[in-house]
């Protein structure tokens, strides 16, 4: 089973940028579609972004559309989330996840994703 390790989180001021990385181990991510979710304290884990197996199709939550960009490099076995124009409400633990639904077009519920990383904290100060 693929293992996922997130990195790139940290503390940033509002309006700033961060790039999260999700490195896959043990198996190639080219067999999976990938997603990013986030969870703030006391809240549910929410969908952020999805990228299909080839990188040819992406999807975003309305709250991040136009600010965040998901990408993947299958040769490096890594998925990225570029986050620009960050807001305090973006503060959360960000999780990378893999799914065998390689070209999904429905609602992105967490239970569609079978493998998760441990998360990386993103804190945006006002």
Describe this structure in words.
This protein has strands spanning 3-7, 10-13, 18-25, 33-39, 46-51, 58-60, 68-73, 78-83, 92-99, 115-116, 120-125. The protein is mainly beta and 126 residues long. Strands 2, 4, 5, 6, 9, 10 and 11 form a seven-stranded mixed beta sheet that branches.
Instruction: Give the total of beta strands.
Output: 11
- The sequence of SSEs as H and E is EEEEEEEEEEE
Q: Which spans have pLDDT < 50 for at least 5 consecutive residues?
A: none
Shape: globular
Continuous helix count: 0
Q: Helical amount among residues, as a percent range?
A: under 10%
Roughly how many Å apart are the termini? 40 Å
Q: Could you tell me the strand content as a percent range?
A: over 45%
Radius of gyration (Å): 13 Å
Q: Biggest sheet, open or closed, and with what strands and sense?
A: 7 strands, mixed
Q: What is the overall pLDDT average? A: 95
Structural class: mainly beta
The gist of it:
The chain has 126 residues and is mainly β. It is built from no helices and eleven strands. Strand 5 and strand 6 form a beta hairpin.
């Amino acid at each position: 089973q693929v293992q996922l390790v997130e990195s790139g989180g940290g503390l940033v001021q509002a309006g700033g940028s961060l790039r999260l990385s999700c490195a896959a181990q043990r198996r190639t991510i080219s067999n999976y579609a990938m997603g990013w979710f986030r969870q703030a304290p006391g809240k549910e884990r929410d969908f952020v972004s999805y990228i299909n197996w080839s990188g040819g199709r992406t999807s975003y939550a309305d709250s991040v559309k136009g600010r965040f960009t998901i990408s993947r490099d299958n040769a490096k076995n890594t998925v990225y989330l570029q986050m620009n124009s960050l807001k305090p409400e973006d503060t959360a633990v960000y999780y990378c996840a893999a799914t065998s639904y390689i070209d999904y077009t429905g609602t992105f519920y967490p239970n569609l994703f079978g493998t998760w990383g441990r998360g990386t904290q993103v804190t945006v100060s006002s």
